[in-house]
Amino acid sequence: MKCLNYIRSDHLRCKKSCRYLIGIGGVFFTLLFAHIDNQYSKKSVLFMAQYVMDGIPFFMCMIFGIFAFSDSICEDIKTNYYRLAILRGDIKEYCNGRTATIFFSAFLSLIVGFLLFIFFLKLNFPWKAENDSVYRAMIRSGAFRTILKGEHYVLYYAAVGLKLGILAGNLALFSALLSLY
């Protein structure tokens, strides 16, 4: 039960920190700048989202996604906050709460930044263009193709965002583990 108290206090620390907003903005603006550089910028949301998520912009988004709270354990060690937290409760509960907070902060920052970018694209482009080769390839062999066949594009990008958020959360936990050494 104390784990929920740790999660709540860590979540408030994360939300009050500007790093969470920097992570969301970094994901959004990284994708936006990758979109501006595109020579095929008059296609569709499906084409543009697929284009910008390949290569360096994808890795930059992962970096901004894990930026929010992945180094919090090092900060706690530097300020001796972990001693106070462990004295109030149990070390196992502290570690579980910190792990959940690190994962969900990266998870949410990447999902929110990615979905903001998708909705920004939707303001300017249709979901799919006529004779869109990316759409045909995604229907033929892409992940979540049954959602695309039903033309539920918002649900499709929510599922893609969840997939990317889980990856960012796992990378944030891995970077928190490596930061201890």
Give an overview of the whole structure:
With 181 residues, this protein is mainly alpha-helical. Helices cover 80% and strands 0% of the residues. Helix 1 (2-16) packs across helix 7, helix 4 packs across helix 7 and helix 7 packs antiparallel against helix 10 (153-179). The two termini are 30 Å apart.
Helical fraction: over 70%
**How would you state the average pLDDT, rounded?**
81
CA-atom Rg in angstroms: 19 Å
The total of helices stands at 10
The H-and-E topology, N to C, reads as HHHHHHHHHH
Largest beta-sheet details: none
Shape: elongated
Terminal-residue CA separation: 30 Å
* Backbone structural class: mainly alpha
Indicate the proportion of strand residues.
Answer: under 5%
Regions with pLDDT < 50 over 5+ consecutive residues? Answer: none
* Count of strand segments: 0
Brief descriptors of the model:
80% helix, mainly alpha, 181 residues, single chain, 0% strand, elongated
Which SSEs are present, and which pair or pack?
Blueprint lengths: L1 H15 L1 H19 L8 H8 L3 H11 L5 H8 L1 H8 L2 H34 L8 H9 L3 H5 L3 H27 L2
Helix pairs in contact: 1-7, 2-4, 2-7, 4-7, 4-10, 7-10
Outline of this structure?
By secondary structure, the protein is an all-alpha fold.
